[in-house]
Design a protein that fits this description.
The longest helix is centred in the middle third of the chain and has 16 residues, at about 180-195. This protein has an eight-stranded mixed sheet with strand order 1-7-6-5-2-3-4-8, with helices on both faces. The radius of gyration is 21 Å and the shape is globular. It has helices at about 5-15, 30-40, 55-65, 100-105, 120-130, 135-150, 170-175, 180-195, 205-220, 230-235, 255-260, 265-275, 285-295, 300-310, 325-330, 340-350, 355, 365-370, 380; strands at about 1-5, 20-25, 40-45, 65-70, 80-85, 90-95, 110-115, 130-135. α9 (about 205-220) packs across α10. The protein is an alpha+beta fold. The N and C termini lie far apart (about 50 Å).
């Protein structure tokens, strides 16, 4: 059987399996990784580090879930193997999808699924025996090396500076329907990547990465268990070129959001937003923004960023870098755009746009864009 809806099928298998083996060229934070973390199953992973494409924070997450090894080879390690076991059965995937955000939600990928898993299991067990453990110290050493030798751009970031697209807000002015919105995002991706070390749709260092990673963070059942790095990523404070997209909050926001005074109240608002049915909108959007905005220490940027990553198909971030662009494009006063009444008017206007009302996703990438379509407006109006 050939599988193309990789993430959905992966999560379906996690519902019956209690063990999974993975061999992948690279790993980054992705929804499949989050699904394993939530399932509490036993996992063995062999992952490559060549090219420095693997995210060290994803390695740390995998090590916390089970056993983690690196192949004992100088060759480019390039397999994509997944083996699920449980309830007296097993099946295997062999295909093109790395255990990355691109492989599981952004790229067009396929895997072959078979219940004749014995030969694949033998191959993995042989690889496992020849691989060596990745310890916390090894991961830390790799992280330091990667920082000094960053990975080469992925395909979404490899653009020619000789044929630059027009400026992002100009692209947005030409958008009408869903198809033109997707085209404009791809050109916006090209514009940013031709000038800066980040992009819109790239697998790493991009608006897309920020939205998806922060969505997984904000959806965690208990924010008090979140480590300092994840808290900093959620608020755009963490070191890195893309975490500040959607707004880079002030360090004091860490205490305002995660301090004992506000944390439970904020998380309850966000939980409702994440879990709400479609028919709860737009009223829930209006109410939740007003509720956060009224909390001591939670300004426009913090409230809108948290809501944007909670439901990136429904909210847009109003921050110092996006405020003027949003106000200019949608004809609002920038100084009052973050006030609840005006923010509600802004969302209402967005919800009336043709590209919002009638997206027609035709492939994996477009479906991913559709799920993040309002949040990604930030890439058109962001100003350094």
């Amino acid at each position: 059987m050939i599988i193309t809806d990789i993430l959905d099928r992966f999560c379906k298998h996690l519902s019956w399996a209690n063990e999974v083996d993975i061999a992948t060229a690279w790993v980054t934070s992705n929804k499949g990784l989050t699904a394993i973390e939530n399932s509490k199953m036993k996992v063995r992973t062999v992952v490559g580090l060549w090219g420095n494409q693997t995210d060290p924070h994803a390695l740390t997450a995998l090590l916390g879930m089970g056993e983690l090894r690196e192949p004992d080879t100088n060759k480019n390690f390039h397999p994509k193997i997944y083996i699920f076991r449980g309830n007296g059965k097993s099946l295997a995937w062999v295909g093109s999808a790395n255990f990355t955000r691109g492989g599981f939600s952004l790229n067009d990928e396929t895997v072959f699924e078979t219940r004749s898993a014995k030969s694949v299991q033998n191959w993995f067990d042989n690889l496992w025996g020849k691989s060596h453990p990745l310890t916390p110290k090894a991961i830390n050493d790799y992280a330091k090396f990667r920082k000094q030798n960053p990975p080469k751009p992925t395909k979404h970031q490899q653009r020619s500076s000789s044929d630059r697209a027009q400026d992002p807000i100009g692209l947005l002015r030409e958008v009408g329907d869903w198809r033109s919105y997707v085209d404009a995002l791809e050109k916006c991706d090209e514009w940013w990547a031709s000038q800066y070390p980040w992009s819109v749709l790239g697998e790493q260092n991009s608006w897309f990465e920020t939205v998806e990673v922060c969505h997984d963070l904000v959806s965690k059942p208990n924010w008090t268990s979140m480590n300092q790095y994840d808290r900093s990523r959620l608020l755009g404070i963490a070191e890195g070129s893309s975490w500040g997209s959607l707004g880079r909050m002030r360090p004091a926001a860490l205490e305002s959001v995660f301090g004992s005074k506000n944390c439970e109240t904020i998380q309850n608002v966000i939980r409702k937003v994440v879990n709400a049915a479609e028919d709860a909108y737009p009223q829930l959007a209006f109410d939740s923004y007003a509720e956060l905005h009224d909390i001591d220490g939670i300004a426009d940027g913090v409230a809108s960023r948290l809501l944007t990553v909670a439901r990136p198909d429904r909210f847009v971030s109003v921050n110092n870098a996006s405020r003027n662009g949003l106000a200019s494009f949608f004809d609002f006063a920038p100084t009052t755009l973050g006030k609840p009444q005006n923010y509600n008017r802004l969302l209402t206007t967005i919800y009336e746009q043709g590209w919002f009302i009638n997206p027609e996703p035709k492939n994996t990438q477009e479906r991913a864009i559709s799920q993040n379509r309002v949040a990604l407006l930030d890439s058109f109006v962001y100003s350094l």
